[in-house]
Write a structure and sequence with these properties.
By secondary structure, the chain is an alpha/beta fold. The chain contains 2 helices and 3 strands. Strands 1-2-3 form a 3-stranded parallel beta sheet.
Length: 76
């Protein structure tokens, strides 16, 4: 399957619309957003009926974690 979109993004605020348009079929399940920042992708995942969990160093993440400190604390 090829994923395509005509949308472009220029910053963190516009990238989630691009990701949503391009990868919409993949957002229906569980999504782990690594480097979630302000969880800009969360409303798009929830709109598709998916479950969202964001990790990173931002103030609005579900789990604050330094991604450079080692492996993520999740099972494969």
């Amino acid at each position: 399957m090829q994923y395509r979109t005509t949308l472009k993004y220029t910053n963190r605020e516009t990238k989630p619309a691009y990701v949503h348009d391009k990868y919409r079929p993949l957002l229906k399940g569980s999504v782990l957003d690594v480097g979630a920042d302000d969880q800009y992708l969360k409303p798009y995942v929830e709109q598709e009926g998916g479950t969202y969990y964001g990790v990173g160093l931002g103030d609005k993440v579900d789990l604050q974690i330094n991604l450079d400190a080692g492996p993520l604390p999740f099972d494969d």
